[in-house]
Amino acid sequence: MSVVCETSAGWLVDELSLLRKWYQHSTSCQDAAHKKQLYDIKEDLFLILRPHIPVQSTPAPLPILCPETNPGTINQRKKRKRSCAFNQGELDAMEYHKKIIDFIMEGTQPLLQEGFKRLFLRPVLVNDDDHSQTEPRLCNNPCQLAELCNMAKCMPLLNPGEHAVQVLERGIYLPQETNVLSCITENKSECPEVIQFMGEKYIIPPKSTFLMSDVSCMEPLLHYKRYNIIVMDPPWENKSVKRSKRYSSLSPNEIQQLPVPVLAAPDCLVITWVTNKQKHLRFVKEDLYPHWSVKTLGEWHWVKITRSGEFVFPLDSTHKKPYEVLIIGRFKGAGNSTARKSEICLPPIPERKLIVSVPCKLHSHKPPLSEILKEYVKPDLECLELFARNLQPGWTSWGNEVLKFQHIDYFTPVDVED
Fold it and tell me: N or C: which end of the chain has fewer CB within 10 A?
């Protein structure tokens, strides 16, 4: 993403600006024989002007008296009092919050001040209309990508030598057969490409690669490349996901079985997004990374703000926090990495950093990390995102909904002058 400003604590970043750069077409993409429609990411996906605080639209109901104090209401059920005691998970979260709140407050304020000076942030005006604080919905009925990947489990497995790489060509229509789920798809062009798949259109950014499958069909990825950076946002188990049935979750044991050591090149950076549940954070640092031979280097925080510089949730909220955690580690695979380190003059990975940005309204959409990581890694590295829901130029993306946020409904046509 485009870095608005930087301090020793971290970065204030503009993800919308970066996404727009990804989908800009140069004049070389427009020739007389192949005039193409251009697209831009919808700006209102990042138009969050006010915090996510519920508005009390109706008066609070009067308290209901229980039968002991109101004998006339014999048909009322006595409401069980809710215990005020916190469970262990909540106590752990409160203790963790106490440790990091000062760093988040002190680190965020200078970035916000600079953001106002550079006019990236601005106060909310009375007449400002935030349109909607909710996640935008697709206008059409896109194919159910996750369900399609689940169907593909019935396909016969290919031999390793049969794993082909499908290169996109202009105007390609991906077949409705599920063979697209068994091979890597590349856009080698310098320009975005629009593809049609299962009756829906998706925009593929330039120089991007993807494999759409679930964890049972990762074989093509294992024979493709080894990666220097692996970022993943696992579908952690939690009660909210179970209630909403928004997506399938994986147990810690299933996440542990991911073939990260096979995908990782020596000294690969492994970055895992973690929910604010302390058991997940401890699992990554104490179980998952050691199981993969990954050494923990740092614990960064993504701080979510509005365009007016406020936290999207109160910092002292007991329900949701305005930050998420990234655990950064380094894979220690086979080979002598000591000699390589002496040849590379790069700053070490900081133990703590803040990434401050206006989040996308799309559920579980994480900001890309390429712009802020480049000062800590060599250029032109191989990068992989696991459990991706969108694509990035220069990256390989994998997941059972890897094209979800590439749907054309999240973009708007752009007029091009001749």
Answer: C
- C-alpha angle 387/137/43, rounded to 5°? 85
116 falls within a domain: no
Q: What is the pLDDT of residue 324?
A: 95
How far is the C-alpha of 70 from the C-alpha of 252, rounded, in Å? 50
Confidence check: pLDDT of 250 > 80:
yes
Which residues are CB-contacts of 399 (< 8 A; sequence separation ≥ 6)? 212, 385, 386, 387, 388, 389
The helix/strand/coil state of 179 is helix
Cβ neighbours of 403 (radius 10 Å): 27
Task: Specify the DSSP class assigned to residue 207.
Answer: T
User: What CATH number does the domain containing 351 carry?
Assistant: 3.40.50.150
**Burial (CB count <10 Å: 0-12, 13-18, 19+), residue 282:** middle
Q: What is the pLDDT of residues 200-241, one digit of tens each?
A: 889 999 999 999 988 888 999 999 999 999 999 999 987 655
Q: With 0-12 CB in 10 A as exposed, 13-18 as middle and 19+ as buried, what is 80?
A: exposed
- Phi, psi torsion values for 160, nearest 5 degrees: -50, -40
Q: Which of 42, 203, 45 is nearest to 130 (CA)?
A: 45
Examine the pLDDT at 267 and tell me if it is beyond 90: yes
* DSSP bridge pairs for 203: 194
Q: Which of 25, 119, 29, 3 lies closest to 411 in space, CA to CA?
A: 25
* Structural domain total, the chain: 1
pLDDT digits (tens, 9 = 90+) for 123-158: 987 666 655 556 566 555 556 776 666 655 555 555
Q: What is the pLDDT of residue 254?
A: 94
Please say whether the beta carbons of 326 and 271 come within 8 A.
yes
Domain that holds residue 236: 145-414
Q: Integer distance in angstroms from the first to the last C-alpha of the chain?
A: 30
Q: Does the residue 71 lie in any domain?
A: no
Give the other-Cβ count within 10 Å of 301's Cβ. 21
String of DSSP letters for 347-412: PPPPS--EEEEPPPSSTTPPPP-HHHHTTTS-SS--EEEET-SS--TTEEEEETTTTGGGBGGGEE
Is 84 a member of any domain?
A: no
